[in-house]
Amino acid sequence: MTVESIGTVRRWSMLGIALAATTSANVFINGAAFLIPTLHTERGLDLAAAGLLSAMPSFGLVLTLIAWGYVVDRVGERFVLTVGSALIAAAAFAAAAADSLFAVGAFLLLGGMAAASSNSASGRLVVGWFPPHQRGLVMGIRQTATPLGVGLGALVIPRLAESHGVSAALLFPAVVCAVSAVVCLIAVVDPPRPPRSEAPVEHLANPYRGSALLLRIHAVSVLLVVPQAVVWTFTLVWLMTDHGWSAASAGAVVTVAQVFGTAGRIAAGYWSDRLGERLKPIRWIAAAAAVSMALLALSDWVGSPVSVALVVIASVITVSDNGLAFTAIAEIAGPFWSGRALGTQNTSQHLASAAAAPLFGALIGVAGYPAAFAASAVLPLLAVPLVPANSPTQR
Predict the structure, then answer these.
(1) For the Major facilitator superfamily (MFS) profile domain, which residue ranges apply (predicted)?
(2) Which of the listed residues 28, 99, 161, 279 has the most CB atoms within 10 Å of its CB?
């Protein structure tokens, strides 16, 4: 093999490892949502309480995302991915062994704190190994880790919970994260970057000073993540309780929606590479998300079976912007600030996502699913004018 081909193989292998590590973390982060039907029926928790328990990993995430980003900026991606994955596995095993729901919630919180490691480190690993004209596509591929993790969790966790209980279901994310830790330890190579003493001044400068560009992208992403969280968290229980579907059938629909969501993220990333623009596609996706959620609310309110198809469509559209925002932020922040900038992005998104579960669970309990879908349609509509017009600098 030539030196160039070896470099190409290495870049794509790093993408594959980043994708696998982040998928494993997302099985843990989002898999707790698929315990809601079992917690609701067997443990007697209402939707608000079950939604709060399922949000514990996301609450844990927001406590440590920026801190993990700082470690990535200072130490590197391999260390963070390896240690973080091992800590997720340990927390998941502990949650599976816990007797009380309080202890389960505590370990889910700790696991979420560990899972924050993969978000900043895997994004940095991908951006660091690929040139600007490929970053939209490859970051779109990397961002499919979230719907893939949700889909894999939906395929396995509800069945385990229904047949063997909550503890057995938690063993699944524990095992996949343990395997991920071993792979990262053996195979991850940190991307090349110059020593801080030799780096250009603009790469060392704080990208938040003198510009609101990153802050506006963070704000837009917060508004767009809420309908995504609503669809992810409640589609399974909505299909089972309101439509009478079995856990297996409802889980299969969620899995299919997440698989289509992976294609949406990749297509959005490829689109941005062809345009040479990260932010313009986000504006179009925000408008489409508002429309799809509004149509879902209307169809569910009138009792139309079209609502099932629309929830799949909404699942695809609402996840399509994430890779674009992550790529833009990494390019603007540069190699010495992108860990913290991506940590800030993840902190704001996951805080909004974690808050959405109990808040919208309570809204569903009071006003029903159509009201919740309609409320979540307003937020992407508000995001459209907030999307910055100027393109990020590619580094």
Answers:
(1) 1-395
(2) 28
Position 195 in a domain? no
Cα-flanking dihedrals φ and ψ of residue 4, to 5°? Answer: -65, -40
Give the separation between CA 345 and CA 49, rounded to whole angstroms: 27
Read off the CATH number of the domain in which 61 is found: 1.20.1250.20
- Rounded Cα gap, residues 287 and 242, in angstroms: 28
In this predicted structure, the answer to whether residue 307 has a pLDDT above a threshold of 60 is yes
Residue 309 has pLDDT above 50, yes or no: yes
Q: Which two tokens stand for residue 206?
A: 């704080």
Give the confidence band of 200 by pLDDT, cuts at 50, 70, 90.
low
C-alpha distances in Å from residue 364, one per residue of 239, 367, 368: 14, 5, 4
Give the number of domains in the chain. Answer: 1
210: tokens are: 């003198």
Burial string for 153-183 (b: 16+ CB within 10 Å, else e) reads: bbbbbbbbbbeeebeebbbbbbebbbebbeb
Q: Are 145 and 19 in contact (CB under 8 A)?
A: yes
